[in-house]
Amino acid sequence: MNLREKYQIPHDSVITIAGTVGVGKSTMTNALANALNFRTSLEKVDTNPYLDKFYADFERWSFHLQIYFLAERFKEQKRIFEYGGGFIQDRSIYEDTGIFAKMHHEKGTMTPVDYETYSSLFESMVMTPYFPHPDLLIYLEGSFDDVVDRIKNRGRPMEQQTPLAYWQEMHERYEKWINSFNSCPILRINIADYDLINDQNAVESVLDKVGHFIQQSRKWETRLIK
Ligand SMILES: Nc1ncnc2c1ncn2[C@@H]1O[C@H](COP(=O)(O)OP(=O)(O)O)[C@@H](O)[C@H]1O
Ligand SMILES: Nc1ncnc2c1ncn2[C@H]1C[C@H](O)[C@@H](COP(=O)(O)O)O1
């Protein structure tokens, strides 16, 4: 019996991993996809034509970057649909608007007109009955200090040059955002409770939680339909 069957995770599940920059989303995405034999939908940082420019000048590039991310995530959504699910997705589309666009708008690094244009595009593309939401959003949470250590250790130059206040603001916004998020079921996991890098068994403890959670959600759905 493979791990997907062992933990009763449906073969067509779409699981998205959310959380602040550096918390461990890509690591979790790869670990779960390997264990389940699922495909990954990863954020491609190296080929992003705006990201470096954005970190150097938020005001000039924030709108361009958000439009780029929206297009990329929609392309990925189409790919996931065409394969019929069985995906682990590195970051949800909801964070683009709920965290990044909102934060840059409120901090004055995205103009009100650009924010309005972006938000109306997002609303008409994503917040509709035609947009398939993931089966589960795994929210990774961790202390600010641990997250900053991980950003430092990873060493992406553009992130090293960004003031700590930016990451602090984002960390606080994530906590508020997840408390009011309701677009799909959420499973919260604290990064202090597992270690995917040094502990071979850690992925199975996550799969165990995911399996239980999906079974519970499906029971609730069945009761609601009846
Ligand atoms: N369990 C862990 N323990 C220690 N370091 C970790 C762990 N998980 C991830 N990391 C490291 O933290 C950094 C950020 O992880 P990453 O998965 O790239 O985060 P994200 O995709 O959320 O930005 C990477 O250098 C990664 O190797
Ligand atoms: N929507 C976004 N707006 C601004 N910056 C973003 C957005 N989505 C991702 N990013 C940045 C943050 C990081 O520097 C890289 C990759 O994110 P990560 O959380 O490390 O996977 O892109």
UniProtKB/TrEMBL annotation:
Active-site residues, Swiss-Prot/TrEMBL: D90 (proton acceptor)
Alphabetical keyword list: ATP-binding, Kinase, Nucleotide-binding, Transferase
Residue ranges of domain Deoxynucleoside kinase in the record: 15-214
Keyword Lipid metabolism listed: no
UniProt GO cellular component terms: cytoplasm
Residue numbers binding substrate: E43, Y55, Q66, R91, D96, E159
Record: residues binding ATP: G19, T20, V21, G22, V23, G24, K25, S26, T27, R150, I151, K152, N153, R154
InterPro entries attached to this UniProt entry: DCK/DGK, Deoxyribonucleoside_kinase, DNK_dom, P-loop_NTPase
GO molecular function: ATP binding; deoxynucleoside kinase activity
Record CDD domains: dNK (cd01673)
UniProt similarity note: Belongs to the DCK/DGK family.
Protein's recorded name: Deoxycytidine kinase
